[in-house]
Amino acid sequence: MSTLIEVNNLTRQFGDHCAVNNVSFSLDKGEVLGFLGPNGAGKSTTMKMVCGNLTPTVGEIKINGYDIIEQPKLAKAELGFLPEIPPLYPDLTVDEFLSYCAKLHGLKKAAIKKAVEHGKGKCGLSDMGKRLIANLSKGYQQRIGIAQAILHNPSVIILDEPTVGLDPIQRLEIRSLIRELGKEHSVILSTHILSEVQQSCSRVQIIHHGKLVLNESIGGLSRRMTSSSLLVRFRDQANLNTLRSINNIESVDTLEDQQYRLHHKQGVSVAASVAEMAVNQHWGLLELTPEKHNMEDIFISITQDSDANE
Amino acid sequence: MNSFIIAGRELRSLFLSPLAWTILGVTQLILAYMFLTQIDFYLSIQPKLIGIPNAPGVTDLVVAPLFGNAAVILLLITPLLTMRVISDERRNKTISLLFSAPISITEIILGKFLAIFAFLLIILFSIALMPLSLLTVGELDMGKFSACLLAMVLLMASFNALGLYMSAISSQPTVAAVASFGALLFLWIIDWAGSNSGNGSSLFEYISIMRHFESLLRGLVHSTDIIYFVLFIAGFLILSIRRLDNDRLQK
Questions:
Q1: pLDDT of the residue at B116
Q2: Between the CA of residue B45 and those of B61, B132, B190, what are the distances in Å?
Q3: b/e for B57-83, b at 16 or more Cβ within 10 A?
Q4: In terms of C-beta density within 10 A (0-12 exposed, 13-18 middle, 19 or more buried), how is residue A225 classed?
Q5: Cβ-nearest to B16 among A13, A80, A91
Q6: Which pTM does this prediction carry?
Q7: In chain A, where are the structural domains located?
Q8: Exposure of A304 by Cβ count < 10 A (0-12 exposed, 13-18 middle, 19+ buried)?
Q9: CATH classification code of A227-290
Q10: Which residues on neighbouring strands pair with residue A58, listed in sequence order?
Q11: CATH 3.40.50.150 applies to domain A3-223
């Protein structure tokens, strides 16, 4: 595996305000990195720096081995970037704009047409070639922005909130496009929509107050998301002490009319033993649900934890 | 090469807006009117000139004043052309397209400069057609005529470079237009101080654009004047590059 993006000790200062504080990460070929964080956490600043739109105060960024400051042309040739606001010229048609972008990235004349057709096809713009960008809806403009970023077949694609303004169907298409791109390129994706990250990313990073607070593979994240509690409801009154005596159960909370939350050790399932006990004791089992954390819970707990630590 | 791509798009956008056509039309109309009145004036004094040895010819009395007037009109319209080249890209965030592409800042600035310069050359071409039409009825002093053209090319490039810099430092196109118009006008008239009493500063005279322009217009191609213009253009282009580069360093 080759490392396509390498970011070391990246810091960005705006006056006294430190927008990004000592962030390091790297991305291999074939990875899709989800970049999460609350508003103002420093996501866009980091992305702008990786794309050479902003110079870091401290730190080093390498794209496919080329330093973005020292060899900007070589590094940027490997880069496709969709900023928060898609950089479009409203007075051009889609075809004109995309071939302009292809030329900017140094594509040869013969390759331009092919690249434009390919980009349009990928982003569902095939019928829009002759339309003026100013007359297209926000969703279509967003698609042009994505098409522009993948046009020259860059090895690193950076998308800042790519699905904003898209309809649900288009959003699904873009997600599968991102997964497909992830096979041959490295993709960094920033978004607010957590389910999007779960569906299309292979790694997740959460940035908060300019610091990287989580860097985990999607597998590790789903382990974090597995439950450590069961929700049960019985017909008759249950004996709490008997319940507590089950192996691996740590504590029992009484919720309401014979409903309890059983906290157990992480990684083991106690559902079978609880069911067995309920049958033996004739409590009449009505409900037995393993509780699952979702990504929102993790996101909130991580960002709040780091708030508390400060 | 990359500069030409940027210049091509810029020029295309310019012609897609009514601004370019309006400027071409209005400039041509006003200068044609001035040209005709100048010819009229020349015809009325022609009989008197015949008696004078070494009398000024049609090039001095019609062509040079025409280009002199054109310079004043350019002073008004160049800021309108240059005002949006960089500030608009910054406002619409399209500048990040250029920043993320494998293009240097120098190429971006040169591209913008070339686009406006190409448009100004189109204006110059349509102005130059007027004196050239006189060839059908008489003769022109081709040496003086080319000196006038050289003067116009240098003047246009200088106005363009200054306008570009003003566009690079301001966040709003109108601010850029007002600032470049003000700066150009000030540089135009800076030698007025003390010129009536005869003790004008020689520094101010050197800085004034008009001094250098007028000596070229009279047919005197001095290397001092050409160096002045080249320094002026290069200086403001370098400043623009520095300023745009600063966008990425912003504190």
A1: 95
A2: 10, 21, 33
A3: bbbbbbbbbbbbbbbebbbebbbbbbb
A4: middle
A5: A91
A6: 0.85
A7: 3-223, 227-290
A8: exposed
A9: 3.30.70.2070
A10: A11
A11: no
Beta carbons of B9 and A100 less than 8 Å apart: yes
Can you tell me the distance from the alpha carbon of B131 to that of B150, in angstroms, rounded to the nearest whole number? 15
Asked if B13 and A73 come within 8 Å (Cβ–Cβ), the reply is no
Q: Which residues of chain A have pLDDT under 70?
A: 1, 225-227, 267, 306-310
B251 contacts in chain A (CB < 8 Å):
13-15
Helices (H), A151-249: 168-184, 194-200, 218-225, 240-244
> Residues, chain A, total?
310
Say if the Cβ atoms of A87 and B93 lie within 8 Å.
yes
Domain ranges of chain B: 2-249
Nearest CA to A7 among A193, A151, A215?
Answer: A215
Q: Alpha-carbon distance A78 to A88, whole Å?
A: 21
Amino acid sitting at position B26: V
Q: Are A13 and B251 an interchain contact pair (Cβ–Cβ within 8 Å)?
A: yes
Question: Which residues from B are below 8 Å from A103, CB to CB?
Answer: 5
Q: Which residue of B has its CA nearest to A50?
A: B100
pLDDT in tens, B102-134: 999 999 999 999 999 999 999 999 999 999 998
